[in-house]
Amino acid sequence: MQVMFVDDESRVLSGIERAVMMQESDWECRFANSGHEALMMLEELPADVVVSDMRMPFMDGAELLTQVRNRWPATIRIILSGYSEPSATLRMVDVAHRFVAKPCDSSTLLTMVASALALRDMFQDPAVVGAVGRTSRLPAAPKVFSEVCRQLANPGSDIRQIAELIGSDPALSAKIMQLANSAYFARGTLIHDIGNAITHLGLEQVKLLVLASQVFADAKTDPYVDRLQRSALLASTLAARISGHQGLEPTAALLAKIALLIPELRQADIEEVTVLGETSLQAAVSAYLLALWGLPMDIVEAVARHMQPSLSADKDFGATGTVHVAVALANHGVLDLDYLEKTGVLNKLPQWQNMLAHTQENLDD
């Protein structure tokens, strides 16, 4: 695996190099003192992961990773920054998959690189890897996006209303969850619920992210995006009712089909293809995108297995089973009745179907 570290401070690179030498790995590591040097080295041999400092002269980390995204979209991009300026945060969010606050312990950084490299092994299809790697923006549902912007612009808005609105849209929720769970903001805390994510980031940071036109794709009228948002909200609300709480299950159900917001993958009928004979490509790509963005792995696992819950490591009816039922019912999909029977919950299906009907009525009001 090819890994590149970029920093204009030689002592920082030397420290990372020493840490790499002390661990057992098959990484081929290269070190560059500037963005221009990194690009020249990448032209000779692309990297699986590029880790760049943000603050460098002539070409900063965001500009470097923008070029990496455009030229080598399959490369996983990690940025380190001590910046607190809003404009710098926005530029990082638009080009990096993961964000790390400086100063950063070398072992922590290498653990993140190792997890990123493990993700790169999930897919061998360069078209899929490239499409997901290139994705830093997803289209929000136009009506939801407009209402969120209106609420954020109103000084008297209630944070709970804003959280509820953002939590109804997969694209907005995924981006907020990405930032809230980053090492830049989270400081080791895993966040599973959009309300907690907004509280953790602070309303001003959320406002900056949402209102910045470059963070999200233009909210153009797209009936498909609207339909996906409505079915995702229905699945999320149903998952909350089935599980009896907010957090993991509702969030995973909301994000389960997020790969379908990537236009080039949506056009490829990815619902029908399988990866490694284990799960549908749609579920796997959704999980890959969320993992790439650094969301908690229990959310990623529930998304990855939601179409075939029997493959989950958890053999009880837990988060994966809840997400499976909620997403299948919300999308008129096929339920794994054998799985429901084996986990002892098949008798609850009529109750869940009634929940679905009531949930649809409430959301339509």
Automatic annotation (TrEMBL):
According to its UniProt entry, one GO biological process term is: phosphorelay signal transduction system
The answer to whether keyword Phosphoprotein applies is yes
Q: What keywords would UniProt list here?
A: Phosphoprotein
Give start and end of each HDOD domain.
138-309
Q: Which Pfam families match?
A: HDOD, Response_reg
UniProt cross-references to SUPFAM superfamilies, sorted A to Z: CheY-like, HD-domain/PDEase-like
Identify residues that carry 4-aspartylphosphate: 53
Q: Which residues form the Response regulatory domain?
A: 2-117
Official protein name in the record: HDOD domain-containing protein
Species, as recorded: Rouxiella aceris
